[in-house]
Hints:
The chain has 157 residues and is mostly beta strands. The chain has a domain at 3-86 and 128-148. It is built from one helix and nine strands, in the order αβββββββββ. The strands form two sheets. It has a six-stranded antiparallel sheet, with no helix packed on it. The protein has a three-stranded antiparallel sheet with strand order 5-6-7, with no helix packed on it.
Amino acid sequence: MTRREVLAALAGLTAAACSSSSTTTVSQTDGGDTDAGAADAGGSTCANPPAGTNLGPVSSYPAGTWTKKNSYIVAQDAKGFFAFTAICTHSGCIVNPPATNGDTLCACHGSKFDGNGAVLQGPAALPLQHFAVALCGGDLYVDDNMSVDAATRTPAA
C-alpha cells in the first residue's frame, strides 16, 4: 500500500461513528486508552473511536466546571460539552487554568477570556478557537482538526 492509500484508509476508519447497541458501562482510566467495547454515557457501544484526542472519562468534566487538559479547555454547561483551545490568540502562549467562572488569563501579555473563550481584555483581538467534541465509550474526544462555532455543544446523554 502507498502512503496515500494508508492515510485514506485511516481517515475512513476515524470517520465511523458510535453504534447504538446497549451494553453495561465499563470503568475507564484517564490514560488516553480507549476500550472500543465500552458503553458511553448514553448506553451506546463505541465500535470505533471518533477522530481527535481522548481526554478521558466524561465524569472528569462535571456540569458547571471548566478544566484545562493538555492544550484544551473543556467544559460542560446546561446544553452539553464544549472545548476550546488554551492557546492565546495574541502570541500563542498557553493560558492559565480557568477560574471557577471559566475566565482565563494569559500570563504572557494579560489577555483575558471568558468561560466561552471570548475576549474580555486585550491585547488578544480574537476569541479562543472552539473544536468539535464527541462522546464515545464513556470518554470525551476533542478534534482540533474540526473548528466549530462557539455556541456548539455536544449533549451529555
